[in-house]
From TrEMBL:
Annotated protein name in UniProt: Reverse transcriptase
Region described as Disordered: 844-878
Compositional bias ranges of the Acidic residues kind: 860-873
Biased composition (Basic residues): 844-854
Source organism of the structure: Beauveria bassiana (White muscardine disease fungus)
Amino acid sequence: MANAASSSATILSTMKHVTTNKWDKAEARLQDIKNHVGESERKLACKPDMLDANQQHLEADVANLLTAVRKAYAGAPSIDVSTRAGIRAKGGHTRAFADAFEGLQNRLNTIERMLSNAKYSSGFSASAALSWRNELLAYLHQSQRRMEYTILFGKLTNEWADFRFGELSDTIASAKQVAGQSDAESEDEGAVSVGRKEMHEQRQVWESLVTNLRTSDKDHIVQFLDELFHSGPLHNKPSSSIEELADLRTTLLRKMRKSVFNSSKGAIPVTVATVKAAIKAILGADQLTSEKRRAMIDLGNREDVLSEIADILKIDLKLAAIERWSWGNSPIKAQMRKAINGKYRVYMDIELLDSILIQCVGQAISVTISNALEKAWSEAVAGVWKAKEDENRTAAIEAQIPNFTNQTAKNSTRELRNDIYKKIFFSPRLPTSMTDENSGVGRYDGDGSDNDEDQVQANLTDLVDGPPNVVNLKTDILRVCSAEMSVQKIVHGQFCLLQSDFEWFGPSLPHSTLTTIMEYFHFPKELVQFTEEFLDMHIQFQEDGKDGAVLTRKTGIPVSFQLTDGISELLLFVLDFAVNQRTGGSHLYRNHDDLWFWGQPSQCVAAWETICEFTQIMGLQLNKDKTAFAHAIDESNPRYKPASKEELARLPAGKVKWGFLLFDDKQWKWMSNKAAIEDHMDELRFQLQTRTSVMSHVQAYNAYMKNFLPNNFGPVIVGLGDDHPVMVLEALQHAQRHLYRSDGVESSAGNVADHVRKTIKERFEADYSEDQVPDCFLYMGVEYGGLGLANPAPAFAQFIQLPKNDINDDQKPLPPMQEALKRLNTAISESYRKESKQFIARLNSKRHRNRMGSKRTEGVEEEEDSEEQDDGNLPDLARSVNGVPQFMSLSTYMGTTEEQSAAMRDFYETLLTEPCADWSVSNRTWAAKMFDGELEDLFGGYIAEEEFLSLGLYRTLAEEKVRWSG
């Protein structure tokens, strides 16, 4: 740690020295501009506050100001300036940002030419000269203001660098202190840098889990797997007689085992491209310390070294060599890091070559698993996943809707549901090749703390056509869940939602469970041996120093390794498949070990009991705090069938939560979870208190607000309801007020802009001329010279429809959800009328044929009488009046729409999508649109002089990932 901190401090010191010269030049430039501005204002014959302005005096002022502006902008004659003439040149049309800019030199020449013409033309009045004078004065003040804020930006960056130096100095001093202490001294908490109580508590739990041997019963696991894959529904083989039957589950297992064995029996293929991909994956997983991270980046840019590494790995990655691999005698250094969601994780700081080798083995095993799992959806066995049909019910519907079975295959919501599950949710974390960079290693967090990703709203997964997006999996589950809720409310009148999670999944996973799974699916013994050796590592925490205790891992898997992530996905596939088979074709939706299931009560009971059985057999434990069940009912729906109390009693209790949302089963909707929001804002408040520089405060604030906070409210989609954007905006406002509350009291004025503005005013008030720092400086990006404060609100506000008072109520567009329901009801009603008419037409046609067949034999007549009687006794779905068959009721027809209605499928798809935005805006453009006028008036279109901006130092500071205190 000391070496890494010392290296970072050296880099910062170098960058700061380089930028000092730039700051000196900026200060000199500002002083020159101030002199020009002051001299020009003193020479004005007509002061700005004079009521009566003499035209000749004004023209003289314009001439003097032309000279002053040219001096103030010396060296930058090609600079663009904002001009009202630019707006007029566009014909008065609304323009995009920066459309009305022209070169300064051209603009000054134009004013000079017009001034010359004014001396010989009576068409020019004093107002024209007054306008030119004010424009030129604005150029002078804008030039001064830009330099002031350029220097302010530099001072804020310098303050951040000093803050970072302080952090690094503390780290170096702490590391040296720990290294120099004896065992007795190291017990004195006052002598070393210690973390918060939560960190020590979580470390104690972690150590108790990984250092104590936790085993699973191999025989029970194999028995569970045998029952799952060998006892299943029997299906006819294509082109075979009815006596030749095949168990699709057995076929699936055989195909998977064959795929695993064939893919992993040889050496792991290694090329330079493979090594590059491994390095990129390691960096993306954030395994390394800062010093090793920089070394790994440097290594990845050196082709000659990469070629040497590839040659070495070609030897080391043969099966015989893999089996002999070991960690050696030195313990692996470990460090606890705090994530943005408040959780602590233990990361292993591995030597670079070892980390590349382990990543290559992990990638190869994961690709093997990915290829094997593809067999689960091959044409020969894909039917094993599908919902089991009630044959009597299907026959009854077919009697009334002859093409019902074909419609089910082509248009049904069921078919769409299966397609989405297959494309998006089935093993998306597994790479498909040795150079695949889209796998999920190191990118999972059940609370959405991957703060380097963009807002999900800006990058929604295409759930219908794919491909999957691992980062969006949590959000995609919410989208599908919301669509299912609306469909099942219509079709069944009730909706059950089950949520669970494995407690301490990584640290508590028995090694015997992973190796048994590998052996069951026929991985070679060499790879099983390598996995065992990888897991049985010796660990020493960095903060304990060189004399700290060495721990031996006996249980659990380390975070952010493709090797264990891949094998874990194979283990959890077993759970996916078991739930599917036990529930009659329903799917378990997972974000790694976050489990979600929905459906009808009996399905949820079967799923829950399967999850519990799997957990017990595999040696795991469920997280009670994240286990919950909700049951929403609509008693007004004629298709609602109450579940028995005994059935519901078998399901867990608790409130279903997703991010900062809480499911309200009474209202059938997701509500903001204010308690969770306040807990996270309290944590952020603690973190911000340790960020004493303005820019470090902004960096930490942005890490929460840019992505973490908005992503945990879910995106704006039709399925979440028309009032979802308003609910999120109110919650964001509450978060701001709670975060910046004063003396424990929330205030409507409490927000980040006021806090940052106040801090800058207290520390740097003499460096700018305004009464307060303008919003455009606070919110516009660093590339413009601003601080780039994050504001998640516009991403949600763009979907709020503004009142349209200029049109009649009956012509106003409906909100998206209401519009989707209206289209669905209209389409189903029309479809019902059509199917009813066709049924009556078929019935009348059959009666006509019967009347025309009067000359048939008695035997034939008896046969026909029997057929007529069968048609009149269709089970459940057929009605009869005076013995005459009737088409099913609209309520009964609605109950079939999930299986055969194209309109219901379209409705389902609509629920997954975002509505049309009332105002299109992105994270990059909202500030430019909102503060365009202020930016032009105060700065002339851009905040800072780019040549004087200390962007190099800023980027050096900003490239370091935020490490949370504690």
